[in-house]
Fold each of these.
Amino acid sequence: MTIDVHNLCKQIIELDSSIRFAGIPNKFGKQIVVEYRKGLTPLLTDTESELHAVESVMRMNTRKDYESKLGKPIYSFTLYEKLKRTTISLDNKDYPVLMVSFDTEADHESIILNKIIPFVKKELSEY
């Protein structure tokens, strides 16, 4: 049984009105699914978004180098002037990370810990 990553990202967008984007790349960083909030104009081109996905997967993989001492990475976060971006570890060999962006005023940590991660764990436990 395979994960329905398209539906997963669509549902993540609906979890909170401050979520702008949800995307899942494969283990090589190739974007498998990209979902944007309805009516949103992306800030990055498709090419820039693809490159960002590759870099996000690579960065999460380097964080795993310290897993034995620091524990598993849960998520990483970057605040930009125009948005907030996070990369959430999915602990899945085919789909290693979930990338999500938020409006700048979002309470991202609460949304990640109380909405996104519980939702994703529930959905992935079915596979």
Note: The chain has one domain: 5-125.
Amino acid sequence: MIRAGSLKETLIFEALTKEKTPSGAISKEYKEVFRCRAYRKKQSIITGDENAKEQFIGQMTVMLVRKYPQINYNCRVKWAECTWEIKMIEPRDNELTLTLKKLNT
């Protein structure tokens, strides 16, 4: 269960939209479709020399959010001044566990 006070992060979900320009060309852009609060799950990092696991953890994060129908694999997420791709959505009761991977944009 997620307690309301633990949802400290704000996630912005964006979906790819197609718009027709005045010249008739179709442009594809990501537009904001939804905002929600989330809890970032802590991930353990092995101390000492940098290894592959630490580099992997730096590019991935796990968030807990309440279940909303707007959240799907076609969305991108903006959080912490970065853009993230949804790699996995795990539903449980009235919440979702999102595994996010940082995009190089």
Note: The chain has a mean pLDDT of 87.
Amino acid sequence: PTAGGIGMLGMGAGGLDVAVAMGGGAYYITMPKVIKVNLVGKLSDYVGAKDVILEVLRLLSVKGGVGAVIEYSGEGVKTLSVPQRATITNMGAELGATSSIFPSDAETEKFLRAQGRAEDYIPLEADPDAVYDKEYTVDLSALRPLAACPHSPDNIKSVESLAGAKIDQVCIGSCTNSSLSDMLTVAKMLKGKTVHPDVSLSISPGSKQVYTMLAECGALADLIAAGARILECACGPCIGMGFSPKSKGVSLRTFNRNFLARSGTADASVYLVSLETAAASAIAGVFCDPTTLGTAPKIDMPERFSINDNLIELPASEEDAKALTVERGPNIKPIPKGEAPKENLECELILKVGDNITTDHIMPAGAKILPYRSNVPKLSEFCFTVCDKDFPERAKAKGGGVILGGQNYGQGSSREHAALVPLYLGVKAVVAKSFARIHQANLINFGIVPMTLKCEADYDKIAEGEKIYIEGFAEAIRSKDEAVLVTERGEKIPLVLTLSERQREILLAGGTLNYTKAKSSAK
């Protein structure tokens, strides 16, 4: 979604969907609604792009963008640079949005010229008579620094209301706030100062280009002199790969997600803030409203960025590709494949969880777990352990079953392991009040049937550990929009199957791998 900052329609997708598209197949998506966010005014000193998207999250919530593209427009758009726009569109994923997009205008052309790609500029904007499903207005001039409090990106408070509260750690960077202009702003704020002795500060530049240019202009030295620790251009602390907060620690991060335990520390409190708030607080040792600091430093951006593509390697030719071999180490295990559904589903409800369950809840990441990314049997030992430490063993002992979730099940990262690992543990279906778009697609890709409760109140009528039965399960997938789940106590729960014809075929085949293989063999 970061691509939306230059007027490009970029959509998050699971790896299997991407692989099929790269192999010549189509990428399918339900036509989204369009939500217009009209930006007026201009940001004040020390109020950043992060504060804009946090305000939008406050207005819409983490499920407010589900099934929609967020389109930004208005006079305020002209006051935002491409990196600022990219910060805003990046966190469209936290709205549950299919994508977010800004117009392609003079700022876009300026950015592309600096990257040596002026010839790629195409002006793009909404038609004057465009019709929207919903419209919101955000006054940039009225915004003040905001923070997303634990443990959700839409749990918004003003930084002013948090001012003075002690902090332990600050992390600046990641895919959300790591552009050259972001890093230069932080370097200017820190120059000649020292990070508070009770605070650890990390900096994650957004790319090799940003890292190089920080070094060339001396800003990197300013950051290091202030006490910052420079990390790789990677997800890093955002997914708990190093720099985890101390136990019960308070961490301020310019990242995009603050889900429970995502940082690698289960009892840490993670706040999402702007880079301006993060830098000011790193020096103060407490939450600090940067607007109290006076006039913000001015950043001089180069007209031309440093371009070095020496590490870009083009794909092998079709002829050379035939000689390539794939080397698999001992930690790379085969991918489990789904099976065609049985005519009737009889099993146990092996887990019941609440609203806004994230893919971090389903399949945690972090330094302890990510080394097993290609080893699904080992990964399965961690599945849902954030919610229930006994789930993996119980799922294996029961031979799998069904999971019951609440609203917005599967929000957050597009990680397909959150579908792949439950498949390995024998999960046949997930019933929820509603699903996040990408996770629902990933479930279907791996042959797990997503179904929604026709009446959300029925959520309370099903108990974890209860035997359940769905008669005509396969037939419902094949041709029906509803099915009935019967509990061992005799409760009859109507379920809804919102599936396209293609998705029905995929589920009946046991997943996209089986479906694609069968289609290819038939040609």
Note: The chain has a mean pLDDT of 95.
Amino acid sequence: MNAPSFDYAALAPMLIVFVAALLAVLVEAFAPRARRFVSQVVLATVGIAGALFAVIYLATQDKAVTTAGGAVAIDGPALFLQGTILVLALLAVLTMADEDPESGAFTAQASAVPGSSDEAKAVRAGLVQTEVYPLILFSLVGMLLFPAANDLLTMFIALEVLSLPLYLLCGLARRRRLLSQEASLKYFLLGAFSSAFFLFGAALLYGFAGSVRLSDIDAAVSDGATATAATAVVGQDGLLLLGVGLLAVGLLFKVGAFPFQSWTPDVYQGAPTPVTGFMAACTKVAAFGALLRIAYVALPGVRWDWQPAIWLVAALTMLIGSVIAIVQADVKRMLAYSSIAHAGFILVGLLAMDRDGIGSVLFYLAAYGFTTVGAFALVTLVRTSTPEGGIGGEATHLSQWQGLAKRSPLLAFTFTLFLLAFAGIPLTSGFTGKFAVFSAAVDQAPWGPGLVLVGVAASAIAVFFYIRVIVLMYFNDSVGDAVTVTRPGALTIFAVGVGVVATIGLGVLPAAALQLANSSSVFLP
């Protein structure tokens, strides 16, 4: 047996982030406490930026390769998604770094019991939880590997590497610690179940094809008959379909699709808001990248078996996310159900099963990611006021957003822009993204037109709860001094500014981005 070959240039984006994560651990262990925060921020920023430059360099080479013994495929979709993830992660890290350590989103000491004297002592001492940056970097390594994984075992490893740090990050909120820890535990338990389903499905597909490589699974499907012992016992079709179903459970959980979406609102609400923004944007991009690769590389030969099920999942995801969002009274929970609905819209493009479908999904993921990071960055700026006149926690109840336009017109206008993009209003990136996925799906008879009609109906329902927030901000009386809008730092202004430019630019002049997405829509076999 020959040793697998490694193309380290192709793996450079992941290796750069991984090295940065290791260095961040060393900084946490050996650097003086007073210097850790700046060191971690600089290291995370430089590492992500370096990986982004590596992705751009690889894209200019126009050369798709498989490496690591065929376990990793660096092709058009992988590079597009890796670049998108890195840009969104960089914006999220800048938002985290701009938080005031004394009133920021992260707890002063994660190991302290909420409300204990140890926690109060850590707050008085001004401790900062700088471990969030190596955790972000390790999670980012998994996110970069997930859409590039070319076999099910590598994909499972990537899934766990991206998930485990997120479980910890969700429990590090500075305020409402119990809610944050509940979110972390719920995410961990349900995530562990979904990972188990994914692994069991991978084992069944290995039994069917005799290999975990995606191209080998496709070849086994095309051959129609395999001679493995497992297929002799269970039956070929049963083993294949059961494996595909269990695999789908693990991936649909990560994208927040029905009926595996129940974790989303609780985790989005309880996690520190900068982490929520990072998770909502980057995790969805990575998970949909893996879902695309499995659907288009491993399972195109059985699409007539799994397409009806995904059709139903997409339709229910769009409708349930849009309908339940109407009754939400917390802005983070509302954005969580909005995220669920958007997962359904993206599934519409996935079902097209052609290059137009891949390109539309890639564009939608990028457009949605920029808007999401910007929206959650703005949520961090709306805070409660303490009786002493200081800054309290985030004001996420919708009643606290009443009259916000009178207090901060620019913030209200920017948040309105993001909401209109989520709703898919023309001249925003959201409209272009929905138009792209609907256009790719509408010609796919017999299921396409019906699913597009469901998507249009869900979009119309979603407009209602977005408009409700806009009305609250502009036409209701202010809540007085109970809520304050903090002055954003330069890093937050930059992150939100990039989100605004992308939201408008991808809506008004989307041709270049659509062309880039379409040119990146070819998977390696």
Note: Residues 225-234 have pLDDT under 50 and may be disordered.
